Structure formats: C-alpha cells, structure tokens
Amino acid sequence: MKYGNELKVGTAVILSLIILFFGIRYFQDVPLFSGSYELHTAFSNADGLVNGNPVRINGVPVGSVDRVRLNTEQQRVDVYFHVENGLRIPEGSTTKLAGLAAFGTVMLDITLGPPGNPPLEAGGFLSSSSSDALGDIMSQAPQLVGRVDTLLTGATSTLGEVEGLLANPQSDLRQMLVAIEASAASLDRLLRMEQRRIASTLESVDTLASSLSSFTQNNQDSLSLVVQNLNSTLTQLNTNLATLESTTANLDVLLTKINQGQGTLGLLVNDPGLYHRLDSTAATLNGLLLDIQRDPKRYLKDLKLVDVF
Amino acid sequence: MIQIENLYKSFNDKPVLKDVSLEIQEGETLAIIGRSGSGKSVLMKHIIGLLKPTSGRVFVDGTDINKISYNQLREIRRQFGVLFQGGALFDSLDSFENVAFPLRTFTKMSEAEIRSEVQHCLNMVQLPDVGTKKPSELSGGMQKRVALARAISLKPRYIIYDEPTSGLDPETSNTIDELISDLSNQMNATSIVVTHDMHSVLSIADRAAFIHQGNMHWVGTIDDMHRSDDATLRAFVKANEYQIGIPSHA
Amino acid sequence: MAVSSLAITTPIRNLGLYVLLLVKAFGSLGEFSLYRKNLFTQMVRTGIDSIPIVALAAGFSGAVTTVQTAYQLVTPFIPKSIIGSIVAPSLILELGAVVTGFILAGRVGARIAAELGTMRVTEQIDALEAMGLNSVGYLIVPRVLAGVIMFPILYVFACFVGIGGGILVAQIGGYLSIGEFVKGAREFFQPFDPIFGIIKSVVFGFAITTISCYKGYFTGGGAEGVGKATTEAAVMSCVYILLADLLLAVLLL
Predict the structure, then answer these.
(1) Among candidates C41, C82, C194 on the partner chain, residue whose Cβ is nearest the Cβ of A24
(2) Is the ipTM, as predicted for this complex, more than 0.90?
C-alpha cells in the first residue's frame, strides 16, 4: 500500500463532500436526485417570509423559498421559489401566504388553477392573492364591538318587554306559570300513589349499598389506587388550567404587541392551529351574533325558561 | 576553511562567549575542548549558523554566514555533516530511513542508488544490519553510529562531532574514536570535535582549542599541548585523565 | 528590565515570534514537494485517526441536545418539531465545529506540541536545520495544512453523526418522530449555516495547529519543558477556539 495515506485522505474528502452536498440539499428541501425548477411571485407584504420557508400545494410540501427581494420600483416584494421537477402547475394558479411570522412559520401556499390550462414554464410568474389573516381579525374587531353594542341595546329593550309580559295576566308567560303549578300538583299525587313501590326500591338500594360495601372492603387496594389516580388527575387538571390561564394572559400581551406592530416572537410560539381556532371562533361568534340579530326570539325563549326555574 | 572572528554571544545579557577567534584549516581535525558549560557547544552552533552571534563574524570558505539569506545559509549547511550529542535521529523513521533522509531530500537518486548508498554508510559505521530498527531499539552507541552514518551520507566537506563519546562506556568510546579518525582519513573531510574527553582528543585530533569561561584560552597542536605550561590547561588535561570513561556531561 | 514592562513586552514578543514562525513556514511553500509525503502522513494522523473520537463526541452531543431540548419544551403550544429546529442548527452552527475543536485541541494539539517539543529537546530540529532543511517549513507547514484541510472534513462528519444521533434518540426515546425532527430542521435551515461552520472549522484548525506548533517548536528545558508545552498547547488552543468562535460569530452572523 504505497499510497495508503493518500487513499484514506481522498476517501474522507470525497465522503465529506457527498455528505455536505446532499445534506444541504436535504435540509433545503430540494429533492435529492431529481432537480427542481424556479417560479416567481410577488406580494405587497412579505409578512415574515424568508429563504427556506416551505412551499405547499393543498398542504403538501413541494419545494421551498429561495429568495425574498424588496422591489422598491414597483413597491412590492418579489419572491422566488422552487418546486420539484415534474410537478405540473397550471397557468392561473395563485399564491398566498399562510401561517404567521409571530408564531414561527410562514408558508407559501399555491392554489392550483384550472387543470385544463397549460403548465407554467420554469421562471414563470404566479399572481398572489392576499390573505392577511391576523390583520383580518384585527380589522373585524371594531365592527364586532359595534355589533355587541347593538346586541346589548336590543337585550335591554327585550328585558323591558319581558317585565311588561309578566305584569300582564293575559300573557303567555302568566299562563305557563299556571300550567306548571298544575303539573306540580299532579306530581305530588303521583308520588303519594307510588309510595309503596318507592319504599321497596329504597330497600333494594340499601342491599346494593351493603354488598357494594363488602365489595369495597375486598378491593380496597385497587379502589384506593383508582381514587389516587383520580386525585392526581384532578391536580394535573388544575395545573393545566393554571397553565392555560397564564398562557391566555401571555397571548393577551402577545396580541397587544402584535397589534402595536412590535417584534417577532420567533421560535417560541408556533401553532398555526391556534390561528385556525381563533378564526373559526370568530366566524362562529359572528354567525351567532348575526343569528341573534335576525331572530332574537329564538334566544329569548330560552331566556324565559331560565327565568321561570 | 572556517574563520571565527571576535565572536561574542550572550543569552539574556549573560555572556557565554567573549571575544572568541579561531581558524580551522582545510582537512585538519580540530578538537574544541573545555569544561561543561564553558561555551564550546555554543561555539559549534555558531559555525553552522544555528545561533547568531551577538557580535563578531563567522566565515565559511570566505562567506560571512550571518550576512547571507536563510536559503543561502542552507546551501552552505549542506556541506556540513553534524553528529549531535544524543544522535538526534528522527524517531519516527527507522535506521535505514534516517540515513536515507538527506539523500531523499537533497538528491535525485533512484531508490536503488539510495539503497546501496545507505548500506555503504552503515557499513562504514560497522552496523550493516540495523536498517529496520527504530532508533529507540538501539543502544546509545549504536544510535550515535547510525547518526554518524546519516551525517556522512551526503559526503560533507566538514564533519562536526558534538560530544561524540559522552555517555558511552570506554570501549564504545574507543570504537567511536577510531571511527572518527577512519572517516576523516577516508573522506578527506575537515573534522571539528567538540568534547571534554581528553582520551578522544589525544587519539584523533591534530590540534586543540581550549575554551575556558567563554574565552579562547589556548590553541595549538596536540604536541604543543603536552608541552604547554599553561596552568588552567594542564589542570583540565590532568583532571580528565582520571575521569576518562566516566560520563560527566551535564 | 522591570517586571511590569516585561509583563507587557513578553506577550507582544511572543506574538511577534508566532507571526515570524508562520511567515517563515509559509515562506517555504515553494519547497512543497519536500513536504508532500509528510503532509499526507499528517492528514491521516490529524484527520482520519480522529474520525472515531470526533464521531463519538458529536453523536453524543446531538443526542444530549435533543433530550435536553425536549425536556425543556413542555409548553403545549410549541410543536415538537421545534426540537429539530433547535438541535440541527445548534450542531451545524456551533457544536459541530466547537466539539470537534476541543477534541482536536486535546488530541492533535497536544500531539503536535509533544512531537515538536521532543524533537526540539533531542536536537532533531537542529539536525534538520544542520542538514540544510527549513525545519519550520518541513515540520510546521504539513501539520498546519493538514489541520486546515482535515478539520472541515471532520466538521462535516461531526454534523452528520451529531444530527443522526439526535434523530436516533428522538425516535428511539419517543421524543418526536424522524419526520417531525426533519420538518423542524428544514424550517429554520439556512444554507449559510454549514458554510459558516466550515469557515469556523478552517479557522479552528489553523488556530490549533499553529498554536501547538509554536508551543512545540519553541520548547525548552527537557522533558519537563515538553510536558509544559503540551499542556499549554491544549489549553491555549481551547482558549483561542472560544475567542475565534465569538469573533467569527460577531463578524459573520
């Protein structure tokens, strides 16, 4: 082995180059063997999109962002990204940003255009559709407050009406109370009639209790274990609630900060799911409010019952 | 020819050599003698430019070796073969490769030529079969002989021996002494032997230079030395006669 | 000379000595053919022979970082993939190069200083010089080049094994799946990170080998001096690795 050393060194060099090359490609999310092609889009606001952020179609990662450039001439942000070779993106597809920079990851989502359209060539341009998600919530908030305000005014007047109804002996409410009174009398009668049966039932319950007692004695250990587990579960639940409470407080501060346009929370907070829940909650609330406005009686009916009991 | 003129050398303001002048003739064997710490090894290192004088000059064949570039100095050094005190064999290489080292480095000899040349040198030091042994596997005397083979492998014009017999038993010392005189004759080289072993001096040197407390105290032939009535020199020679064979170098 | 002025001039003098040594070493690159064989020997000793220990240390670093990051991240709002986002860049940016650096400071730095120190005290360096060889070039250039070339290679291996160790522990220990780990690692991956790591490892390789060569080459005082030089080489290498680490982070990140 005259060239033993040279051979060893050469092998190490080649191995490390291979690891380096494929390692970088792997973590850049570039397909290891098949190539990729570049596409181009533009946004009015990059919203925290940076190099290396994933590009997705219907939630499936297909590539990543290469460059984000500020284009001062056209006052927009040019974004260059690559997708796997062989992936057919028809003309008329659009891009939008998903995820929140405040919670960690921003993604570039591609919404595919009509499948009949010819595919985009490498270097092609996709137009973007805006989806400033958190901004939407923020802009909706004042509107929401306005609605709540209207709702409360409505509720106040409704309560006034309820008061009137109760005063009026001809009102439905009055008649209903009378009916309930009658029902109570019937129940009383029923109980008297069934007294004997109830007594025997209670006897059975007594026997059951005594056999349960003996069972408990026989299985004391496992039961106490169950109780202990239950106990610790409750404690844990308590802690979780405390965590939730503090998290909520943090979120509050966070949202204030985001609203004021302060800082990026970066790595530490990252949960796109949170946003989705928030969004759907807002939507539900919205729907609810709309519904209340449209048909307040439906809700007020419930209100009546509550008052009665 | 080597000329040393008014050489001063001090380390950290402590003088070691004070106004040393010496001329070494072509072909002769000169012994530089003196007690341990007298500065003779320092003087030797000035001759090949391993140390720079504080003042004074060193000429090798008329060239002032402290006025030339490092690369030119290296050219001059190639005319020297140096046997260091401990042999200074490269312990990563076996004996054969140690002797072959200067040949591989400075000549374009083929592997076969190198092989025969190394064998020739090892024969000259009477160690024909140590080629595959590492320096650590050799005795002190053998190490010195292999080092000597390495020093002569480029057929130098000057051979410097730094304490060639220190640390060796009297018999081995004699062998080394014989080797040195044989080599000087065979290779027609100028030899400089730095030693405190008067036995060596008497058996191999033509002339002796006695350094005492950093000064060139006495220079002359061996015959002159016997007749000299210089008290310090006589004391040194006499003291050494009782010490022959006893390693006394510090 | 007064003690106080010595305290100032000695470090400056040593720095000058160090720089001159390097100038002398790299001034002799013209005679590279003389050093070629030596270079490959040094590359094997510095690089190839260090692969097992570097891989071991890096693998454990990756595994430990993963477990500890998982331990610290208990808040339900943070997805597990963030562990991958923390472990992979930590290894690529910092641990890969620094762990390798510390190991080589001990392994290679001490060896170089001991070798050169022994050669100095047994006059082998004088012997090389007396033969007419540029001992600085002959001894130092191959060692420094071997460090500068092999260190990035060891760094790449360290990152590979380290991330592998992290993924393995994440999967086996049930902290998070390979998929989650890789997803997290990809989200925050910057192509400059490994480049930065390689720059770092080149600098570390240079620092360790030159400091150790300097310490070894100027050894004095016999066996004790060799021991002192060896210790100093390892310690100084570690100190300068940390300094260089900070300096590079400030300059390049």
Answers:
(1) C194
(2) no
